[in-house]
Amino acid sequence: MTPSAPAVAPENQPKGTPSGLDRYFKISERGSTIAREVRGGFATFFAMAYIIVLNPIILGSAKDMYGNQLDSGELVTATVLTAAFSTLLMGVIGNVPIALAAGLGVNTVVALQLAPRMSWPDAMGMVVLAGVVVMLLVATGLRERVMSAVPRSLRKGIAIGIGLFIMLIGLVDSGFVSRIPDIAQTTVPLQLGQGGHLVGWPILVFAVGTLLTLALIIRKVPGAILISIVAMTVVAMVIEAVAKVPSWGLTTPKWPGSPVDTPDFGLVGEVSLFGGFEKVGYLTGVLFVFTVLLSCFFDAMGTILGVGDEAKLMDKNGNLPGINKVLFVDGIAVASGGATSSSATTCFVESTAGVGEGARTGLASVVTGGLFTVALFLTPLATMVPSQAATPALLAVGFLILAGSIRDIDWSDYTLAVPAFLAMVMMPFTYSITNGIGIGFIAFSVLRLAAGRGREVPIAMYVVSAVFVFYYAMPALGLT
Question: Which residues cross the membrane (predicted)?
C-alpha cells in the first residue's frame, strides 16, 4: 500500500471558522485540507482509470446464449457512467475517500458464467438483484453477520482463486496461452501461444507490457497499471502503422478521428430482472445471484476496512464509524452496475493511492467522480486500446490479490487450509468462480464434521453447502 501522509497536527490546522465544505466533509476534523483532498482524488482516478479500458474488453469479448456481444463504445460509456455515479455517491453520503468502478472478477463471472446461459439483459438483471440483496442485508444488519459466517481463511482462498482466474483470463485473451482444439485428441487443454510457440507482434506487446507493469509496481510508481496501458498502446499503434499486423483480436490500435465524442448510453436500462431464472431454472439462478453477491461482498468489505485503516478513520475498537452508509452505497453501486450493463460496481483498493496523498474524506471521492464524468466524453481513446496492452493489468492485479491474501490463510489447520486451497484452484481449473466457492464451502463443512468440530460451523455455512450439494447433484437427479 502507498504510505499514508501524516495527519495535520491541531496546532497546524487552519485558524478561523471552517467553511461549509469543510464542515460537511469534516476536512479539518480529520486532519486534512481541501488541497490534499483534491490531490488525493486525482491520484485515485489515475490509479484506477485502467478499468475504463479493461472492463469493456472483458465484457465485450464474451457472447450470450444467442451469440450477441456488447458494443465496446457503449460499454465504455456504461463503465465510466457507473463509476462516476457510484464514486460521487460514496463521497457525498459515505464521506470516505473510496472510489468505485466495475469489479474485476465479478465482470468475469457475468461474462463467462451468466451470459453464456442467458441473454445479456438477463445476466445484468441478476447483478441488479445481487445489489438489492446487498442493500437488504445492510438495512437489516445481516451483512456483517453473513460475512462472519465464512472463515477468514476461506474468504482469502476465494479471493486468491478470483485472482488466479483473472490471471488466466489475461493470458488467454492476450493470446499468450491458447486452447488446444479437441480435434487434436490430447488430454492437454492449454498450450503456449499458437502451436506451442510465441509468434507475432501482439504477443510481444503483451510480454513487454507485463514486464513493464510489474517493474513499475515494484518501483512503487503511482498509476503503474495505467502508465503501462498507455505506453504499450502507443507502442502497438506504432507497430500497426509500420507492420500492418493481420489481427490484433478485438481491437486494432489506431488513432481515432477525434478523441472526443458524445457518450453512447445505448446499454443503460437494458435489464431483465427475472428472465434469467426462466433460462436456467430457479435454483441455478439463485446460485448465480449468490455467486455475484459473494464476489462483491467480501471484496468490498475488505477494501472498505483496509482503506479506512490506511486513512486512520477507524475507532478504538477497529470499526469504521458510519460503515452502514458506506455499505449501503456499495449495494447501490452493485445494482447500478447491472442497470447500466457494466457489471457489478465495487470499491477499489486503488483508493489507497489517494489516501497516500493525504485524502481523508469524501471530498476526494467527489473529485475522482468528477474526473470520471469528464472521461465520459473521451470514449474513442478507450476503444483504441488492444487487449494485448490492457491484459497485463489482469496478471498484475491477480498477483497483488494473491500476495495480499495468501499469508492470511491458516495453513496449520487443514480444516481451513484444504477448503481454501480447493476454492483457489478450482476457479481457474474449472473456469468457474461458482465452482470454487461451492467446493470450498462443501469441503469446509465436511472436514469440520470429520474432525469432530461440527459445532464450530455456522448454520449458514451448512445451509449454503447443502444448496451447493443439491446443485451439483441436479444432473444426476434429472433436474437439469
Answer: 40-59, 80-103, 123-142, 154-178, 198-218, 225-243, 282-307, 363-383, 389-406, 418-447, 459-479
DSSP state string for 85-114: HHHHHIIIII-SS--EEEPTTHHHHIIIII
Cβ neighbours of residue 23 closer than 8 Å, sequence gap 6 or more: none
Rounded Cα–Cα distance for residues 425 and 213 (Å): 25
- pLDDT tens, position by position, 119-138: 999 999 999 999 999 899 88
**Rounded to 5°, angle at Cα 354 from 350 and 360:** 120
Helix axes 282-310, 433-450, angle to 10 degrees: 90
Strand pairing category for 345-347 and 100-102: antiparallel
Which residues lie below 8 Å from residue 452, measured CB to CB, with a gap of 6+? none
Place of cell 489507497: 352
Nearest to 289 by CA among 467, 89, 416, 167: 467
**Residue partners of 407: CB distance under 8 A and separation at least 6:** none
Domain residue extents for the chain? 17-473
DSSP string, 7-25: PPPGGGSPPSPPPHHHHHH
Q: What is the pTM of this model?
A: 0.74
Cell of 220: 512503487
At 388-434, the pLDDT tens digits run 988 888 888 888 888 888 988 999 999 999 999 999 999 889 887 77
Q: Are 195 and 212 contacting, i.e. CB atoms less than 8 angstroms apart?
A: no
| φ, ψ at 104 (rounded to 5°) | -70, 130
Share of the chain above pLDDT 90, in %: 45
Residue 224: which H helix or E strand, with range? Answer: helix 224-243
Cα separation, 296 vs 37, in Å, equals 27
**How far from 131 is each of 28, 125, 127, CA to CA, in Å?**
34, 10, 6
